[in-house]
Design brief:
Layout (H helix, E strand, L loop, with lengths): L4 E4 L2 E2 L9 E6 L2 E2 L10 E6 L2 E2 L9 E6 L2 E2 L7 E2 L2 E6 L2 E2 L5 E2 L2 E10 L10 E11 L8 E11 L8 E6 L2 E3 L8 E6 L2 E3 L8 E6 L2 E3 L8 E11 L9 E14 L3 E13 L11 E5 L7
Parallel strand pairs: 1-3, 2-4, 3-5, 4-6, 5-7, 6-8, 7-10, 8-11, 9-12, 10-13, 11-13, 13-14, 14-15, 15-16, 15-17, 16-18, 17-19, 18-20, 19-21, 20-22, 21-22, 22-23, 23-24, 24-25
């Protein structure tokens, strides 16, 4: 690779303004109206730039972005892109990532993340705030640390997920997932993690309405399960819960240990014998 092209403080309009540019340092530039300004680009360092129109980084490879802004009108901005690192950047645009691989986002805010990070692989987020529905659909190999999520249907269909030190406020989070590990986090939402295989919550505080049902291999390790009723329906579960649970209903099998359970329901719709689930109460009163 030869010497990098350096571009400073330019204003670009029109379609494909820097199409296929390679090996460049771009600083202080403004990409106004005009689609796909950096399409099919490679080996770029982008600093203190504003993107104000659609599709700014499609089919790009080896991209670093810092101290920049993707405005709401830069929607559908980063698709089919490989190896992108974004730091200290304001990401206002919806549908921002699709079918991209090796995505790292640090110290940034995704304030309108509707339908973002769909069908992507190898995602790492650290110190990131996300607001928007349907984030992470069908994506794989996801690592989140110190992330705040406010949006429904988070990570539907995701695989190989590790989340630490985070807060997730989301109706129907973790549906249809496979291999999820969540540690030292707060999860607040309805109908949590239905139809998921292999999900572990360790040292977590969980609030949900009729959550943790239809799960194959659910583990709650040293967790609190607050304001949650009718939990564990048709789930296989191993749970150590550090509070009194409102109610559980028709678990398939496993061990459930709690300080107390206000209501334990085994009715005519149970799919296995009640004896398949060992319920251990440390203290408190229970109504069966």
């Amino acid at each position: 690779m030869g010497k990098k092209i350096e571009i400073y403080n330019q204003v670009y309009t029109g379609e494909r303004s820097l199409f296929m540019i390679k090996d460049a340092f771009i600083k202080g530039c403004r990409f106004y109206d005009g689609e796909s300004p950096l399409k099919e680009t490679k080996n770029l360092e982008i600093d203190d730039c504003d993107f104000e129109w659609k599709y700014p980084l499609w089919y790009a490879t080896n991209i670093k972005v810092s101290n920049s802004t993707f405005k709401d009108s830069a929607r559908s901005g980063i698709w089919y892109t490989k190896n992108i690192e974004i730091t200290n950047t304001a990401l206002f645009a919806p549908k921002l990532f699709r079918r991209s691989t090796n995505i790292t986002i640090k110290d940034s805010v995704l304030s309108h993340a509707l339908e973002t990070l769909w069908n992507c692989q190898n995602i790492e987020l650290d110190n990131v705030v996300i607001k928007g529905d349907y984030v992470g659909l069908n994506s794989e190999n996801i690592k989140l640390n110190n992330v705040v999520v406010d949006g429904n249907y988070f990570l539907d269909g995701a695989k190989e997920v590790v989340i630490r030190n985070s807060k997730i406020i989301s109706k129907d989070a973790f549906w249809n997932c496979d291999n999820v590990y969540v540690e030292n986090s707060i999860i607040n939402g309805e109908y949590l993690a239905w139809n998921t295989k292999n999900i572990v919550f360790k040292n977590c505080i969980i609030k949900s309405e009729q959550g943790l049902c239809y799960i194959d291999n659910l583990v709650l390790d040293n967790c609190e399960l607050l304001n949650t009723s009718l939990a564990f329906e048709y789930s296989s579960v191993k749970a150590k819960i550090n509070n009194i649970v409102d109610s559980i209903k028709n678990p398939n099998k496993g061990i459930i240990e709690a300080l107390g359970i206000k209501e334990i329901i085994f009715d005519q719709n149970i799919k296995t014998s009640p004896d398949a689930t060992n319920i251990i109460i440390e203290e408190g009163e229970n109504n069966v």
